[in-house]
C-alpha cells in the first residue's frame, strides 16, 4: 500500500463509544443532541473503518456488545472489567463467582454472534488505588486472565505503575494464548515497552502515549510490527501542551470544535476526543519514526487484523 493513491485505513482499537458524552450527555445533563452517528461518520470519512468499543465493567461490556450488534462488521466489542472497577466483583449481588459467570456468558455468546474480539479492559492500575485497592485488582485480574485463556480471546490490557505484578501474572498465561494481546494506551518506560514486546504483546498508541519527550522516545523505538493505533476517545486527545504537538505540522485538520453548550451539527466538542483524531495519532507516529503515514497505517492495520480478526482475512 506504499503508493499514496490508495486511501489510508485505520482501526481505532480503543474507543469508549458507550460513554454518554457521545450522546450529548455530560455528568448526567443533556448539553446537546445525540451526535453519535456524526461522530462515527467523521471517523469513516478519514478512513477509520473498524472500531473496537471498550468494555470497562459488566454493564459497559453489555453496552459495547450492543453497539457492535448495531454496527456489524464495523464495531466490535471487548468484554471485561477494568482494574479501577474490580471492586464490583465483590459488590455483585450474587458475589464474585456469579459475576465471573455472567462475564463468561456474555463473552461466549457475543463471540458466537461475531461481536466480541478481545477480553478487556483488564489489568492493574496502581496510580488510582483510591478507586480500588491492590488486593482486589490482583485477585480479579488473575481470575479474568484465566477466563480469557479458557475462552481463548486475545487480551486488551491496562497497566499503570504496576509493571512488576502485571508481568508476573501475565507471563505464564500468555504462552496459552496464541494471539497474545495488546497493552492499550501505553505510557510506560522504554524498558517496560521492550519487556512487553519480548512477551509477544502489541502496544496501543494514543494521545496519552505521546505526551512527553520520554513517551516519544518509546514510540520511536517501538517495532512497527507491534504498533496498534487508538484514540481512547472521549479521553487522551493530543493537546497543544504535549511534546507531540510539534509534530502536527501537515497533519489532517480536525473539524471545528466548540464548547458543548454551543454545540452545532458537524462540529467537535472541546475536550471530547473522538475517533476522527486517529489520523493525527498516525501522523505523529510517522513523524517520530521518520517514515510515511502509509507505512504506519498499513502496519497497524495488519497488526490489528492479525490479533483481533475484525471480520477480515489477515493477508
UniProtKB/TrEMBL annotation:
The keyword Nuclease applies. Keywords: Hydrolase, Metal-binding, Nuclease. A divalent metal cation 1 binds at residues 121, 232. PROSITE patterns: TATD_2. GO terms for molecular function: 3'-5'-DNA exonuclease activity; metal ion binding. One of its GO terms (cellular component) is cytosol. The keyword Hydrolase applies. A divalent metal cation 2 binds at residues 158, 184. Gene3D superfamilies: Metal-dependent hydrolases (3.20.20.140). Belongs to the metallo-dependent hydrolases superfamily. TatD-type hydrolase family. This is TatD family.
Amino acid at each position: 500500500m506504499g503508493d499514496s493513491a490508495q486511501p489510508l485505513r485505520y482501526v481505532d482499537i480503543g474507543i469508549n463509544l458507550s460513554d454518554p458524552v457521545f450522546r450529548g450527555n455530560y455528568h448526567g445533563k443533556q448539553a446537546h443532541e445525540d451526535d453519535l452517528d456524526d461522530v462515527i461518520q467523521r471517523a469513516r470519512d478519514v478512513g477509520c473503518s473498524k472500531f473496537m468499543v471498550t468494555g470497562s465493567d459488566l454493564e459497559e461490556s453489555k453496552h459495547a456488545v450492543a453497539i457492535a450488534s448495531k454496527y456489524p462488521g464495523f464495531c466490535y466489542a471487548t468484554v471485561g472489567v477494568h482494574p479501577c472497577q474490580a471492586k464490583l466483583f465483590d459488590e455483585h449481588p450474587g458475589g464474585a463467582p456469579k459475576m465471573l459467570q455472567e462475564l463468561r456468558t456474555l463473552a461466549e455468546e457475543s463471540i458466537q454472534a461475531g461481536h466480541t474480539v478481545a477480553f478487556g479492559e483488564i489489568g492493574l492500575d496502581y496510580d488510582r488505588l483510591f478507586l480500588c485497592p491492590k488486593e482486589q485488582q490482583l485477585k480479579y485480574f488473575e481470575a479474568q486472565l484465566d477466563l480469557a485463556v479458557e475462552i481463548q480471546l486475545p487480551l486488551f490490557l491496562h497497566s499503570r505503575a504496576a509493571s512488576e505484578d502485571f508481568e508476573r501474572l501475565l507471563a505464564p498465561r500468555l504462552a496459552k494464548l496464541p494471539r497474545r494481546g495488546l497493552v492499550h494506551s501505553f505510557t510506560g518506560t522504554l524498558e517496560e515497552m521492550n519487556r512487553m514486546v519480548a512477551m509477544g504483546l502489541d502496544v496501543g498508541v494514543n494521545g496519552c502515549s505521546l505526551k512527553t519527550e520520554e513517551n516519544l522516545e518509546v514510540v520511536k523505538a517501538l517495532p512497527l510490527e507491534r504498533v496498534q493505533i487508538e484514540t481512547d476517545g472521549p479521553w487522551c486527545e493530543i493537546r497543544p501542551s504535549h511534546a507531540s504537538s510539534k509534530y502536527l505540522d501537515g497533519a489532517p485538520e480536525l473539524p471545528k470544535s466548540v464548547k458543548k453548550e454551543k454545540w452545532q451539527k458537524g462540529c467537535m466538542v472541546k475536550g471530547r476526543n473522538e475517533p476522527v483524531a486517529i489520523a493525527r495519532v498516525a501522523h505523529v507516529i510517522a513523524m517520530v519514526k521518520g517514515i510515511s503515514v502509509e507505512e504506519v497505517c498499513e502496519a497497524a492495520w495488519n497488526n490489528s487484523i492479525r490479533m483481533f480478526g475484525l471480520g477480515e482475512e489477515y493477508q
